[in-house]
Amino acid sequence: MSKELSRHEGTRPETVDQLRWLKPACDVFESKDEWLITADVPGTKQDALHLHLDKGELAIEARRTDWFDNSQAFAGWRRVFSLPAGIDGSKVSAELKHGVVSIRLPKSEAIRPRRIAVNAG
């Protein structure tokens, strides 16, 4: 029998009383103008949804404590994405509707495809 309390992949140690996080089902779409990430977070209210964009990573954290008779056994959903270079952070937006959060990550003008006009000479 192993003496490890639990197996944890990551660089930070896991505490014994750590709450359980589930990974929400997500879809990622790319268009010429933006990236769109949708995540299923059923039952989450707007004030319990936290999105963090920092140093090229997007963290989605949605808490739901009404399960398990308000016990602390279930923390909610958490997922972190490494984003490609060229996201315009000042124009990122999100919407929560029917238990699905949609996060729009616009591409900066510098990386958007563009048509180059050819002049006849």
In short:
The chain has 121 residues and is an all-beta fold.
Which labels suit this protein?
121 residues; 0% helix; four-stranded mixed sheet; mainly beta; elongated; 8 strands
Q: How would you describe this protein?
A:
The chain is built from no helices and eight strands. A four-stranded mixed sheet has the order 1-6-5-4, with no helix packed on it. It has a four-stranded antiparallel sheet with strand order 2-3-8-7, with no helix packed on it. Helices cover 0% and strands 40% of the residues. It is elongated, with a radius of gyration of 19 Å. With 121 residues, it is an all-beta fold. The chain has strands at residues 20-22, 26-30, 34-40, 49-54, 57-63, 74-82, 93-97, 100-106. Strand 7 and strand 8 (100-106) form a beta hairpin. It has one domain (20-107): Immunoglobulin-like (Sandwich), CATH 2.60.40.
